[in-house]
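Service request form, structural biology core

Requester: graduate student, group of Dr. S.
Request type: structure prediction, single chain
Budget code: on file
Notes: please return the result as structure tokens.

Sequence provided:
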Amino acid sequence: MTSDVLIIGGGITGLACAVELKLRGANVTVLCRDFTAAASHAAAGMLAPDAENITDAAMLSLCQRSLTLYPEWISKLEEITGLNAGYWPSGILAPVYQKAGVNLPISQSPSLWLDQATINQYQPGLSTDVVGGWWYPDNGQVDNRYLVKVLRNAAESLGVIFKDGVAVEAIAQQQGQVIGVQTNTGFLKADHYLLAAGAWSNQILPLPVRPCKGQMLRLRVPEFLTELPLTRVLFGENIYIVPRRDRSIILGATVEDVGFTPDNTPAGIHSLLAAATRLYPPLADYPIQEMWWGFRPATPDELPILGESHCSNLTIATGHYRNGVLLAPVTANLIADMILSQKTDPLLTNFHYSRFQNIPFKTQSSTTSMLTHPANFTNGHSKTLSLQPTEFNLQDPGLVIAGKTFQSRLMTGTGKYRSIEEMQKSVAASGCQIVTVAVRRVQNNAPGHEGLAEALDWGKIWMLPNTAGCQTAEEAIRVARLGREMAKLLGQEDNNFVKLEVIPDAKYLLPDPIGTLQAAEQLVKEGFAVLPYINADPMLAKRLEEVGCATVMPLAAPIGSGQGLQTTANIQIIIENAQVPVVVDAGIGAPSEAAQAMELGADALLINSAIALAENAPAMAYAMGLAAVAGRMAYLAGRMPMKSYASASSPLTGTITG
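Core staff response, request fulfilled:
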């Protein structure tokens, strides 16, 4: 049965949305890769928009709205299930160690400053270092593990379908619509799709969401204490202490940008215990009951991504970072309004994914082989010159790849530059129309790639996502899918190009012919225009052409070596036999070598290192652009025949003799 809504992600956000959508009459299916891995299992359940001291006005408004919804939302869930969600509007204390610098809270909700005597009366046992603190009576907590169980139970009771152990590998799209999702168990379809995959969202769509690890531990109140010593959440410096009614006390949480590195560490646990016992010294003697970790979904501005996507039937709800539990009810309401009623709350404009796609730099458009004059590369001003073969009665239809025509025959890369600005100037100077981008490096914000997706005008430059860093065919296929999504998010809806690299050899960076062929076959079946990077092997080139690749890209020499044309004979054979464009890729070190490759009859060049590592990269980019044009025109013009003897330039007849 096809569901009305297919939710990708079974954490608290996905569950809350599933319940709300089902209550409003939708048929809902939830895909859970690992129900216990969701960030909501590793949270402390604080409902603390004021104690968190949120400074972003839209975020604070969203959090406070959700906090207001909590009592009624919890009552509804508990009524459906008959289970206790552990909601406790206990208030939150935020002790401080130094009075100097204490400011009034930004929050407009009720809060109260307590001096040292008052705060110790209100919560005995605090450190003597505590000089006072803020009391936030409207804030509180919920037992996040109980809440997740209640939500799952409510969803199942209402008839939501769960598919556990299902991992989404790719989202299939056509003409701005999702047509299904590819999973490890097959292809699934629905009318509408909701991406709520938390820290794993970036593995499905190229959203700027990264995992932020948090370590936590649970203490137990000793049996000899008959009453709970702590009844308020303590929100301190680099620590929060959350007492539960079941006599456990939660300590959290570290903030670690270490990717998906698992496990608790001595350093992490030590930092929590040190901060907790400084704030509330009696904890030093409490037994440790449990330790665990989780991965928060963090965005660059630490705000969630909510609302519509580049596809009309795909909605996004991810990136909640530290406030996923707090924002669950308001997220569910807003998402259900969007999907079922097409109502978009004005507040959601502040959380749209497009806020990460500001374009500060505009490259020059190129409808012919347009090159920037290098007279003044340093201040950004330039003149242009245009060289067109038609002016010399030469016919050149342009570079045609997978039905798309480009006038420039030079492709450039984005890696190894000393700065983003240098890369921008070099791309403009080269006159190129295709720029290749390493999907993994953009995903991971690798050095030199921070903000890269926003650095070029993708309305004028065609993105060529590449699978750099992939050692196997399987890795390359997955990264290629992410690259296609990245291109769509940047406005290139019809971009199905991928530069295929499968390179298991870390020393020489030579491509794997078997893995390349395997990945190419699969990607062609999935509708990609595959541009495979290969050794200059004529047989492999022909085989890749036969499986449907859009080009072949033989290396001239090892990547980044600058050795020039070391494989000339094989490249000539490939050019002679190919029915698809031949792009010489890797090894070109100088414009003379670029021109020579084009003179052989190559259809295009891809050059990165020779430009990026030059002393003046924009000037070298300009020179490479000229070389590509000169080499192509020389090839079309036809060189003179080579002879083994001299031939005078001027005729001998009519000369004066004797």
